[in-house]
């Protein structure tokens, strides 16, 4: 008679063991499942880049700006010299602003060049005429930004910097 009582007990223990192993297997799978990803894509977001074109003759310095970058931009120009300078834009497109710069009046599209801005000089009277001199032209550009109505505007305080790493620094 004892053999009959052992069989249901063994069956219950086996059922419990099988049920327990099913739960342990999924729990182990939960804790040991992982995934990996590899590779990468280099993204080039593009930049705005401008190049000043300067020619000099007896009438002064003639400046145009070419947008060689990937995006449209705004440009402005200022010049420095040891004598009085006069700016003229014979073909229009330039305007003097209160910040001391001459601003190209519109957006300069990528691949386009501004009309010419002439910077002429006048020597001082008397013996103070320099034998040699240089007119230094500073030109700046800023990407086109848009307001909530879609109107383009420049942000001349917008600064783009690049980070330098310890490897890229040089010591003298």
Describe the overall structure.
By secondary structure, the chain is an alpha+beta fold. The chain has a domain at 50-153: Immunoglobulin-like. The termini are far apart. The chain has one helix and ten strands, in the order αββββββββββ. The protein has a four-stranded antiparallel beta sheet, with no helix packed on it. The chain has a four-stranded antiparallel beta sheet with strand order 5-6-3-8, with no helix packed on it. Strands 9-10 form a two-stranded antiparallel sheet.
Report the mean per-residue pLDDT as an integer: 80
How much strand content do the residues show? 25-35%
| CATH architecture type of the domain at 50-153 | Sandwich
Strand runs, count: 10
Unreliable runs, pLDDT <50, ≥5 residues? none
Q: Determine the oligomeric state from the structure.
A: single chain
Shape verdict: rod-shaped
The main pleated sheet reads as: 4 strands, antiparallel
CATH class identity of the domain at 50-153: Mainly Beta
Strand order of the largest sheet: 1-2-7-4
What is the count of helical runs?
1
| Structural class by secondary-structure content | alpha+beta
Helical content stands at 10-25%
State Rg.
37 Å
User: CA-to-CA gap between the ends?
Assistant: 99 Å
Named CATH topology of the domain at 50-153: Immunoglobulin-like
Order of helices and strands: HEEEEEEEEEE
Protein name: SipW-cognate class signal peptide
Signal peptide: 1-29
Organism: Coprococcus comes
Keywords: Signal
């Amino acid at each position: 008679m004892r053999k009959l009582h052992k069989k249901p007990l063994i069956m219950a223990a086996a059922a419990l063991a099988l049920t327990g192993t099913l739960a342990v297997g999924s729990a182990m799978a939960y804790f040991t499942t992982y995934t990996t990803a590899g590779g990468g894509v280099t993204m080039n977001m593009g930049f705005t880049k401008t190049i000043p074109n300067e020619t000099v003759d007896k009438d002064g310095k003639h400046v145009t700006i070419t947008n060689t970058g990937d995006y449209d931009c705004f440009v402005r120009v200022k010049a420095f010299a040891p004598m009085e300078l006069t700016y003229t834009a014979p073909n229009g497109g330039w305007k003097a602003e209160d910040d001391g710069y001459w601003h190209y009046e519109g957006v300069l599209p990528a691949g386009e060049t501004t009309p010419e801005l002439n910077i002429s000089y006048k020597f001082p009277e008397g013996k103070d005429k320099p034998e040699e001199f240089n007119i230094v032209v500073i030109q700046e550009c800023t990407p086109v930004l848009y307001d909530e109505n879609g109107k383009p505007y420049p942000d001349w305080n917008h600064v783009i910097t690049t980070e330098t790493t310890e490897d890229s620094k040089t010591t003298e």
